[in-house]
Design goal:
The complex is a heterodimer of chains A (338) and B (156). By secondary structure, chain A is an alpha+beta fold. Chain A has two domains: 113 residues, Phosphorylase Kinase, domain 1, CATH 3.30.200.20; 201 residues, Aminoglycoside phosphotransferase (APH), C-terminal lobe (Aminoglycoside 3'-phosphotransferase, Chain: A, domain 2, Alpha-Beta Complex), CATH 3.90.1200. Chain A has ten helices and ten strands. The longest helix of chain A has 27 residues. Chain B has 156 residues and is mainly alpha-helical. Chain B folds into two domains: 42 residues; 104 residues, no CATH class. In chain B, 71% of the residues lie in helices and 0% in strands. The chains are: A alpha+beta (338), B mainly alpha (156). Chains A and B meet through helix 6 and helix 10 of A and helix 2, helix 4 and helix 5 of B.
Chain lengths: 338, 156
């Protein structure tokens, strides 16, 4: 089987292509210069390069000079989740200007003609993005940072979403599950049925980040500077972001219990969160995580991914299903004990 | 020949790769891949011998509980045919039979819960509640059993 790879670009060639992409967004600019991109860690799903761009608007002595730190994100071959940067471009466009802690979006290469795969060019925000460091911070710092994360979520969910947002999430993920599974997994099927039977429309639909967790934020001290990785953004129930942030693998529960996070989120203007919505979204997030795990394991078995961290991901389905069954069992009416 | 057991071989591979090879690999992609492989070897060392018993127990539970569920739903069992091809990576005929049976029982379970869900919309009652309880408990038992077999509680 042929290993999927991206075309290799020399740094100078990559810089020229970033400049070409940027020029489309800056038709009035004079000369645009771009430093040679440096490869940085962009997660399992994307390949990332950092660079700096400079340009001037206007003429001669009246020209205003601009300098912008940038990050180029190119979809990695064999990625286990839908990571179309065009989707990220649409989700992010204009968000920073509306008070959301999101990078400004500069341009995108939807068909990959410049970089060999779809790519998006974003403002490079300051701060650190290190989930291990975040989750191992001292209690006081981690608590202050996590309460700020709740405020960042409330700010995001206050933005009125654009209409028309594609396939409903539950149907989308169920289809992915049925496509990728290597065996029946009747417990997961049953959980999808439970979600379908118990779904209620969100109290107030919002733009949902879709991958909202400590590993996808930039922070400086106790402050959350920016939310990263928007390729799973969609319009839906904002409670989904809270439930996803408290998935056991990366939960900040050690710093701020879920109930307190919800209270801080609501106090910051977030959507009121009911117990039923929180339970439904926690089950949904576990089922979604399990489906992503099955997709990841399948990608390695099929030879589409060579990332050995994914080869045994199917076993992470088990604790997700255990958690869901426990929550559902505990929520059954007292007159029907099992 | 009994020794070294596959578990000893896997544990030895894990230990030597971790202690002797990994420190010599420069930080980066190859080291990350090696760490992931060492983790999986450790998991296999802990669980290589439980598959047979796990599948036997799971198959008995599925067989008995499917009979109960069919009775509660008032329907006949709809046994699913075994897939003709062997499970990938399995050469032992006995283990392959257990896997094939488990696979067909899982498919029968999914079919039964789908049919019950469709019919439930027309009539709900005490049998329906009982069906739901038996099904939930089956999923809980099977998931806990899978956790033990996969060594989920023994992550390093």
């Amino acid at each position: 089987m042929t290993r999927p790879t991206l075309p290799q670009h020399a740094p100078a060639q990559l810089a020229a292509r970033v400049r070409e992409l940027l020029r489309l967004r800056l038709p009035e600019a004079g000369e645009v210069t771009v430093s040679e991109p440096v490869r940085v860690f962009g997660g399992n799903a994307r390949i990332a390069w950092a660079c700096d761009a400079r340009w001037a608007l206007g003429r001669d002595t009246h020209a205003s000079k601009h300098e912008e730190p940038l990050i180029l994100l190119v979809r990695a071959p064999g990625s286990q989740v839908q990571t179309d940067p065009a989707h990220e471009f649409v989700a992010l466009d204009g968000l920073a200007e509306r008070g959301v802690r999101a990078p400004k979006v500069w341009a995108h290469d939807p068909d990959g003609h410049l970089f060999g795969a779809p790519a998006v060019l974003l403002q490079r925000l300051p701060g650190r993005a290190d989930a291990v460091e975040y989750l191992s911070a001292d209690t006081e710092l981690g608590r202050a940072r996590t309460l700020d994360l709740a405020r960042a979520a409330a700010e995001l969910h206050a933005v009125t979403p654009a209409a028309g947002t594609g396939e409903p999430q539950l149907a989308y993920w169920r289809a992915r599950f049925e496509d990728c599974r290597l065996e029946s997994y009747p417990a997961l099927s049953w959980l999808y049925d439970w979600l379908d039977d118990n779904a209620t429309p969100p109290a107030r639909p919002a733009l949902v980040h879709g991958d909202f967790r400590p590993g996808n934020v930039l922070y400086e001290g106790a402050r959350i500077v920016g939310l990263l990785d928007w390729e799973m953004a969609h319009v839906g129930d904002p409670v989904e972001d809270i439930a996803w942030a408290y998935h056991a693998l990366w939960s900040p529960e050690r710093f701020v219990p879920l109930e307190e996070f919800v209270a801080a989120y609501e106090a910051a203007g977030g959507v009121p969160v009911t117990g039923a919505a929180l339970r439904w979204n926690r089950v949904f997030c576990e089922v979604r995580y399990a489906t992503i795990s099955l997709q990841a394991a399948r990608a390695v078995i099929d030879g589409r991914s060579h990332n050995l961290r994914l080869i045994d991901r199917a076993r992470t389905v088990i604790p997700s299903v255990q958690a869901c069954l426990e929550w559902i069992g505990a929520s059954r009416p007292l007159e029907t004990p099992c | 020949m009994l020794r070294p057991t596959p578990g000893e071989l896997l544990e030895g591979l894990r230990r030597e790769l971790r202690d002797e090879v990994l420190p010599a690999v420069p930080a980066g992609s190859a080291a990350r891949q090696l760490r992931a492989a060492i983790h999986v070897l450790g998991r296999l060392a802990d669980t290589w011998d439980v598959q047979h018993h796990y599948l036997e127990t799971d198959n008995v539970d599925l067989e008995v509980t499917l009979a109960s569920l069919a009775r509660l739903a008032g329907v006949q069992r709809t046994r699913q045919p075994r897939r003709p091809q062997p499970a990938p990576g399995v050469t032992d005929r006995g283990l392959n039979d257990l896997i094939a049976r488990n696979d067909s029982l899982q498919r029968e379970l999914e079919l039964l819960q789908n049919r019950h869900r469709e019919s439930r919309h027309h009539a709900a009652g005490r049998e329906d509640e009982e069906f739901g309880c038996v099904l939930l408990e089956l999923h809980q038992r099977r998931t806990n059993r899978a956790a033990a077999a996969a060594g989920v509680a023994h992550d390093r």
